[in-house]
Amino acid sequence: MRLHTVFLVFALGCVAARSPHKPTEGPRRALVTMEGMDISGKLMMEQASISSPVKIRGVIYGLEPGRHGLHVHAGTTLGDQCDSVGGQFVPAEKYESERSVGYLGNIKTYTGVPSRTDVSLISSLVSLFEESPRSILGRAIVIHQLPDDRARASKNVELENRLIACGLLTLSQIEEPITIDRESITYGAEKAFKKIEQGILNGEQSWENVRHPHYGAVEGQKVPSNLNLEGVERPTNVDSLTLETAAPTRKVWMAGYTYEYDYAGWTSTGIMGISTKVSGGSIKGRLTIEPVDESTAVVALLATKGKQFNEDVMEKYSEVDPGQEVRIIDQEHLEKPFQVKFVSGKVETVAIGKEEPLWIVNFKRALAAQIQLQLDGVSGVFQQAEYDNYYAENTVYHAMEGSVTGECQTWYHISRLPVEVVEAEPKLLPAPELCQNFPVYEIVKNRDLDNCRILPIFNYNSNQGLRCNLVNGAGCENKISHSDTVRIIGCTSNEGHFIVQRIKSIDKLIVKPFSYETEATEGLTVQHLTLRSATPTGYSKLVSRISSDVHIYQTLAYSYDDDYKTHGPLMGKPTLRNVNSPMIMEVEPEILKKEALRLLSEIISDVESEAYYVDPATKYTSDKINMLRRALASLDYNELMAFVAQVWENKEWSTSNQIVVDALMLTGTNPSLMLVREYILQGKIVGEQAVQAISALVPTVETPTKELLASWMEFLKSEVVQSQRQLKITTALSLSRLVYQACVNTTHGLNMFPKLVMGEFCNPSDSIVASQLVPYLAEQAKIAKDAGERMAFLTALGNIGHEIIVPYVKPFITSCEPSSHYESEWYERNQRDLVSLSKKEMRKKWLEAKKTLNLKKYEQEQEDIVFARSESEDFEDEALCNLVRSKAIFALSNLAVEKKEIVGTLLMPIFFNKAEETEVRLAALTLLFVSNPPQAFWSRVALSTWYEPNDQISHFIYTTIASRVANKNPLNREEAVRAEAVIALMKPMFWTSHAALNYQKAGYSEKTRLGYVTETVNFPGFESFVPSHHYSSLSVAMGPWFTKLMEFSIDSKHAEKFIDRLVGKPGLRFKSNKDESSIISPELEKIHEELKIEARATGQPELYIYLNFLDNYQRFFTINPNTIFRMIEKQILQSGFRENAGKLEINFHKYLPLLDSFARIPSAMGLAYTWTSHHSVLVSLKSKIEGGFAMSSWSAKLEGALKPVVVSKMSTRLMVDTPFTRAFPTTGVDMEWAAALPGRFLVEGDIKTGKIQTTWETLGDKLRVVKHSVVPFTTIRKITDFTPAALLSETKRISYVEEPKENKVIFGEKHLGMNFVFVERGERLAVVQPSVYSKDWFGTLAFAAMPSTLRQREWSLYLDNASSETKAIKTIISISTKSDSKFETPLTGHLHAKSLFDTIYGEQIMSQEYVKQQDSQWESQKFQHIFQTLTNPTGYSLDFTAELVPKSSSIKARRIGSSVVYGMDGKSHRGSLMVERRDEVEGQNNFVLCAEVDAQFPDNLVFKRKELIKDETERRSTIKIGFGKSCTDDRKITVATTWTRSEEDISPSLRNQWEKTQCQKQETLGRGMSDECIAARRLSSILNKAVMTINYNEMPAAVRNATIKASNLVRHWLGPYMSDNQVEVMNTQNQITVESVYYPLAGSMDVKVFKPYSNVFFRGIEIHPIAEVILPKRMAVPRSVLAAPGVCLIGSETVTTFDGLFYNASFSGCDQLLTKDCSGRYKFAVLSRVEGDKKIVTVLLNKEKIEIFPAQQKVNVNGMEISVTGESYTVKNAENEVLAVIKKTADNFIEVDSPISHMIRVLTDAKEVVVLASPIHRGRLCGLCGSQNGDKVTDLTGPRQCAIPRDLMDVAYELRQPAGCKSDISSRDVAELRRIQEECLKEKSETIFGISDVTPLLPKFQQNILSSQTIRRPSQWTVYRNKMVVQDNKRCFSTESVPKCAEGARAQETVEKKLGFHCLPKNILSEKLNEEMSSRPLDELMGKQVDMVRVYSVPTTCLPF
């Protein structure tokens, strides 16, 4: 700034020199403080001498937009409200001027920044010198409300113009005098100054063009740095190599000389790693440099010529000079001279004409940068006497130096060239005669773009996840690299100055198109300056041609914005209705609209055409949509409004409307977004289309200004949005995520938005965030009408990701339904009706009333998701409360990811509280692991697995740590290291079925820089088998990008009930009678009544689904059974599909941007590179469906046409600007996947027969089913042409060879009658490319679609329907079951000897009625075959056939049929597979395959350790396969597998040590079911050795090839473990044997493969621990195994519960309830009593009663005695359904097994009872065996869900049956139990469920946590404090803090606010809170019970006094 000002002061010096007055020495500086109503500011005035003008600059705050007059008044005092300032100042001395002396000028406040006005004026009519008669020192400076009219001012006419601010001007001291170099004045400066000054005085412009609203400027100094942004660390520039003594400019550019150079500049782009084809442009001319004096030179580029090229360039540009000559646009401006001012060789300012286009301004500044040279004054270049000194001749230093690529640290490397080098390169010195045998030097300048003061980069990224910072201009890991190097050759002349002979600069930008390692697109800019002559002239010829009206540029950095071009790269933020593009080549709006209309017309024509659905790849529709949005992106609001109004249709899902909405959102400009916003508010965009548009808000916004955020905040609060549930939730999610990216996360914001050039957009303390959005989201969460909405808004709060949310989230962490003032007010209004109710009852009434009020409020809502609830809903649903609290904890996820300390402080107490709910503890633990806790925490948690009572918690910890050790993720190495350090501290555990797990899998390839991380988190369900919380995510790493590709969570509440509501409860499913009394016995009801069992799992079922795609697209859904029924009713039944009369048309088109990146990076030539990357998916679906469901016959029929299209495209472009041709030379890479499959379909089904028939007929003569292509290309695009690059005539594909190779394969015609054509075309290196990722199978699949090279490749799969014989594909599926052995027709012959097509798939399938026909005979035959060796079998079968229907009836159909049948009993499993292919066109192609499986899996034994160890039970299976022409007489394969115990491979001593040291100790205490014993038995029971023998009679070539490929794949994955022997091996012929041994303690496996002529061995293969789960066992499976039942052991006087809790219990002659489903879902109970020291067990299943007398080895079933032998006895119900099987085990236990109907198993002998319950009953059981929820603590719970002592458990569950039974329970124990239960019930009745007042305030050491670490101040003048009142001798504190004006501030506006108060007695705690409330907000009170409500006036805005 100062340099700019000094230049004008120079111009005034000439005028001052002519004055007859002798100037007084100066300078002078004065200050004035301006004050007014809401107006404040300061002005500084400077005057260099008494004859110099006065410069005025400063900042005023509070003025309204527009112009205001600035005057000097005569008064020397101000008075009150500026009433003593007097009239306008008129000096005594007359002064001839057009205007009054007191008129300083008009100042202007711009609309974009209404609160700040930058002042920059000059006045030559006033003075700061006391001796001057025009001195204004001590006078009043005033600001008028209106601007001054020049004519009025000249006539001194005083019209009414109110004064709005004033101040007195006082003198200030100046430390350094200002010196003026008068000799630097150039011709025409006086005229230029007058013109500039007049414009400034009129308020039309400021001295610096326009002051930037964010960056401003340092007063009188140079343009400020644009890197002073939050989160940016700037390195130190000063060190020992800093340049200290720069040589004067005259040492390089001597005044009086004229230097002429041949200039040539080329800018181009290409992919040099593939081909030499490049696209670009060039400028040539003669560069003339005329130094005027020692610091000023005039520069001009004359005789210019331009070229443009798109061709191969094999040689250097300077030699080839490619391209065709073109006319240079703006050539007259380009050749106009400009002035450069140097300081010691460095360019200080550049003066360029105002009228010159912006691209020429940048180009000329680039030329100025080329000729600046900061040479070390003490180097050998000038110290000729010392040029033999090595370090003088070879110098390295750095200096800050400007260029268009940035004002950066520049390294100079100076070296003297040997004479031999100079002689060897004669062209090195174009004018050698000027060197006069002096040394020649090479000077290399290299700009350090990582160390800049100004960096001119415009960037935008739609996705977060870039791990490098764009302020590092030199590069971003492997993604991008930018270098700017200049080489200068010169010598020292006889006059002692350095003559520049040659300058060559190379600017190179390298970009990896897809970020990972492939070939790179390259941008190259080369400039040559070759000396023609350096001649003395004595004067400047060019100075007279310099423009008289110039801008002075104090920085050489590239400019994007014409309004701010003197500020270098800084740009103004766009308004809501205007755009501000960084592209300097603009297109007229009419051309843009014309192009947009053309593109839209083509797009609509494409998607409406039949050809599009046959071959979408040829239409380039997705490219056209992308170009449409680029055309619309440059239009302002009014232009867009006119365009949209022209094309909009009054049809919701019209093609035009869908495309236009997607294109508008995709533009991301403020006008486009505002237009979509208005259309939604006006009802033109409605329903799901509006929701989809809003969900795309986050990835499309380019400039998130405060005004834009405020407008969307108003949108969120609008009535339209509030009345639509999904729209409101989606808007809240999108807006909160946008605020996080733009305002909160500085790293994301810097990489995603153009903050470098536009400044900060917003921050967390802004009112829109702190005072509007966050409180609104918190309020919506508080008043939400249901839990789904509450969780959605908690998720939105979590999106904010700032500590400001903590006080709002915390109440929901401690309570799922926090108290509020709304509730207190409702109590007051309804006090009369509530007076007799308890607090709990009052609370229930409030919740009911709140839901009713909310439903009334939203009764007009037309949403698919409806929350009608049953009247019996339990408002104390603890499962729901846990979900809400967990979701509130997860709202802190972003804080945890950013490692905020507050996360650990808040969540550690929750996790370590063992009384807390399991789901809540796990939620806290999940985030604690993420938040980078200290190593001590990891150790503490790992050790806790030894004593943690909750197995779910222990297993979660174990899987978390173990998976991070097993999957070492290089992207998060620190976490893996900490896990490795503590894994040895954990208790050894097995990967089991505990619903709680946290599993991470990761992989990374250093070679390609590709990687992935998957994470799966499960929480156990509350009283439910289904996890209450499931979370999965997939993140991918591609180079520097680490992006969360997708994540979803499903929170479920009583999900089993969800199924029951849809299909019926167990026992009643698919039955007409839904009455539960029909399946429950009176005895079960009697147990329930006698024990007063309080029901479990009483809440209503719901699912809460959260989807997040790319961290941008978010949706939240709540689903319950009513939702499903409503959707079916609305979408199907009401649409006419009830009785086959429905009609539905679908016209859906969705363009989804996956990634949108844009960057503008200037080149050294002043012509910027533009990098764009756009990845998208286009989905189109057109369909017409007819038909429906016949409810009377339970059948359905649907038919119609279906035309789906999916096009996925990844496009990248690297463009260079050539504004002199108005075009963009471009290099691009397009990767595309396109798929289409249009056809007509028919679906028929019949539930009674179990058959479904489908028919599919493909449409189109020639259909391209799939296309994949990678196409690199170059092109030249005119700025007015928005045609996709692939369709431009200038586009040329980049290929190393002229004609890429093409392969064509035709197949399918012979066997399928369908003519498929596979065509592959491309370069050989691309066709045979290796996989881009091959480290593991998951990564290989995940990155399979990514190419490893950018070389041209394209393959397509066509279906030629016209030449195909097959017309359609018809399939039939038939499902059947059988559970008895009764058959009407006996089986004749072997089943596999029969032909499927002769038996079942004959001509009858051609019948239209086949779907309704029952295949009774075939079912009888296949089930008889399976049931032959089974006892009491159950069987299932699936038949499938596919028929290829020919076009002509003369051609017989091709068919393939299959039949699968499976049967089982207790021990045996049998299966059969039959496959037959019949090709009646080619009879010899008929083929059959049959397989028969026979497996013997003996039952697991019970826990008797001594017998178990000796037992050698095996598991055997045999598979017999026959195939070929016949299943019985052709090729055969037999596979026999045996699982055994390998005692010799596992040391028995280790097993015995376990027994001796651990288990035996526990057994002596009666704890045979302890964890130690279970571990020992489990280890000794694993059948760890498997032997598989494969015998075959013939191996066909196809099978042999397949086995070789499989073998190679195994070798690839398991190569490190492999060894083999292929020499002199002679094993059994036609036999392959595979042996494997698993080592459970080591977690490894050995595999041996013996083939006839080779052996292969794999040793030490690492096996995931979960593999143990699938290994067979030879004993009863313990509770800690995946999907296995829990085990409860009842001894003589001991109980070991399902969850492992051990306690003593006495058993008498009365039944004790061992276990029962207390939720009532399954109707069963298990009872036990003792008679004569013998156990008697009763099992109740539905209405069946089974009594077991193990001592007598007999069983009574419904009073009928049966004897128990080795044979099993089946218990069935009235419908002949199997309920249980009774049998005697090998170890003399009697077993009652109900594996299907009730999933319970009971085994007993005379001394003990073992109950095995399926995990399906998790949390629903009650009785002595506990609840089976994984938590031992909850096992001591009575029937009424009250915690009771363990010695009273047998008292609580004793029944008074059978009649006359004798009990051993004392009356004292009964009385004690009654007392405990009564106290428990009383406490429960008084406790208000879900309110945080049931827990105390945070402990004292935590009370300062939240407030001390929470930033919530919206401004520096506002603080948040609580209110306090005294009521009834209690201190009552407001439960929320409210704004309060800080000291020194006052309230500008206030609002009335209702506050709820929580009252505390006057004690130490309330005294402490009273003391601290003045210094901090009491955030720990949020959510506390509201005891009273008061209304207060609180400020909304505070301003300083």
From TrEMBL:
InterPro entries: Lipid_transp_b-sht_shell, Lipovitellin_superhlx_dom, SOD-like_Cu/Zn_dom_sf, SOD_Cu_Zn_dom, Vitellinogen_b-sht_N, Vitellinogen_open_b-sht, Vitellogenin/Apolipophorin, Vitellogenin_N. GO terms for biological process: superoxide metabolic process. Keywords: Disulfide bond, Glycoprotein, Signal, Storage protein. It holds the Pfam family Sod_Cu. GO terms for molecular function: lipid transporter activity; metal ion binding; nutrient reservoir activity. It comes from the Eukaryota. This is Vitellogenin fused with superoxide dismutase. It comes from Daphnia sinensis.
